[in-house]
Amino acid sequence: MIKHIVLFQVKPFDNEYNKNNKLEEIKTGLLSLKSKIPQLKSIEVGLNSNPKENFDIALDTTFESMDDLEIYAKHPDHLAVGKIVREVLQSRSCVDYEF
User: Fold this and answer.
1) Which of 25, 41, 94, 99 could form a disulfide with 62 if both were Cys (CB 3.0 to 4.6 A apart)?
2) What pLDDT does 9 receive?
3) Cα(93)–Cα(53) distance, integer angstroms
4) Residue 46, helix vs strand vs coil
């Protein structure tokens, strides 16, 4: 099994309302992938509650193999959500590990 964990930091927004709306849009988009990509075994998306931390979104996903993760990464629905993320992305950190 492969655990794929990604942290996203978004660019500054002009106000918290707009930032929160965009974060919710991203979260909803990511969570919708579970029903669209069969290789995605599990997904959790969390929005940061601690204003002292730098990252805004945590993505935690599980796959049977690195090949399945690759299929997910190239899937059109994943790429569509990725486009939304990239529009506001400042920083990204990722780790993939076997368990």
Assistant:
1) 41
2) 98
3) 14
4) strand
The tens digit of pLDDT for each residue in 72-90 reads 999 999 999 999 999 999 9
The pair of structure tokens assigned to 29 is 């988009």
pLDDT (tens digit per residue) in 29-59: 999 999 999 999 999 999 999 999 999 999 9
Instruction: Report how far residue 74's alpha carbon sits from residue 95's, in angstroms, rounded to the nearest whole number.
Output: 18
In residues, how long is the chain? 99
In the structure encoding, which two tokens stand for residue 98, read together? 């076997």
57-63/89-98 β-pairing: unpaired
Sort residue 70 into left (φ over 0), alpha (ψ -120 to 50) or beta.
alpha
| Beta-sheet strands, E only, within the chain | 2-10, 42-47, 57-63, 89-98
Side-chain-side CA neighbours of residue 15 (13 Å): 2
